[in-house]
Amino acid sequence: MRPLLIAPLFICLLAGCASQPGDPDGIWINQAAIDAARQGGHLREALLAYGPNLEWRIEPQRRRASFSNGYEHDEGQLVSETEQRLRVDFYGDYHEYLSLDDAELVQAASGTWPEQRFVRAPTAGSSYAPPGSRFEQALYGAYLGGTWSIRQGLGEGGLVLFHADGRVEGLPGAERYALCLAGDCAAMSGEFDSLWLQLGEQGQAWLFERDGERLSIFDAVNQAQLDEMPEYRKGPQRWQLERQ
C-alpha cells in the first residue's frame, strides 16, 4: 500500500497543487543577496556572495523551471527524482538540483557554486513578469527605496525617489534607472558598481559607490579604444545623495 500513498505526492509536486505547503510552483528570489546588499556596501560583491543565481521560476504543470542571474536566463525540464528533490535538466547535459526546506527553495551545491537559498517572491506582481524582474524589483526597493536628498550636485537640496519598477523622480536628467547586476556592464565597470540613467531615448552608464545611507554617483570615463569594449574608470563626482 505504501506506493499508493506516495504516488499522489509525486503528482502534486509536478502538477502544482497550490493547497500543499510543499508546492514549489511559483517565483523564488534570493533574499539573502538582497539582505546583504541592503547593508549599503558594494552591490555586486553582495550578490556574488549569496548567488550567483538570483531568481527561480518553477512551473510544475509545464514541467519547466528557469533561473536568472541578472544577465543570463536559462530554462530546463523539471523532473521529480524523489518526494523531496527535483532535478532540472538543461541543454548540454547540465543539471541543477532543487529541494524544499520549510519555506525555502534550496539549490544544491555543485562543482560550480555553493548551496543557494530562495524565498517566494511577494504575491503582488504579474506571474508573466520578465525573467529576473521580480528579484530586481525586490532589490531595487531594498537597496534604493525611500527618500534621498541631493547633498551635492545638480539639483542640490532636492529630493530623489528611486521606484522599484525602475522609475526615478527628482534626479535631474533622468526618468529611468537600472542597476548593473552582472554580465557585460559588470565587465565594463571592473571593480566599481554601475547604473544606467535614461531620459527619453537617451541614456548612459554611471559609476556609483554606496556607503551606508550615502550614495555617490560619478562620471563613467571610458578608457578603451573605439574598437574595444568600453572600460570605465571613475571620473568626477556628479551627485552625492543621502537617504533620509
Keywords:
16 strands
Q: Short description, anyone?
A:
This protein is of the alpha+beta class and 244 residues long.
Describe the protein.
The protein has helices at residues 2-15, 31-38, 43-50, 133-144, 184-189; strands at residues 26-29, 55-59, 64-68, 73-80, 85-90, 94-101, 104-107, 116-120, 147-153, 159-162, 168-169, 176-179, 193-199, 202-211, 214-222, 232-243. α2 runs antiparallel to α3. It has two domains: 21-121; 145-243, no CATH class. The longest helix is centred in the N-terminal third of the chain and has 14 residues, at 2-15. The strands form two sheets. An eight-stranded antiparallel barrel has the order 1-2-3-4-5-6-7-8. The relative contact order is 0.13. It is elongated. The protein is built from five helices and 16 strands. A hairpin with a 2-residue loop joins β13 and β14 (202-211). The chain has 244 residues and is α+β, with helices and mostly antiparallel strands. Helices cover 20% and strands 41% of the residues.
Uncertain segments of ≥5 residues (pLDDT<50)? Answer: 1-20
Helix content: 10-25%
- Main beta sheet: 8 strands, antiparallel, barrel
Shape: elongated
Give helix and strand order, one letter per element, not per position: HEHHEEEEEEEHEEEEHEEEE
- State Rg: 21 Å
Q: What proportion strand?
A: 35-45%
Strand order of the largest sheet: 1-2-3-4-5-6-7-8
Question: Number of helical runs?
Answer: 5
What is the arithmetic mean of pLDDT?
89
N-to-C terminal Cα separation, in Å? 63 Å
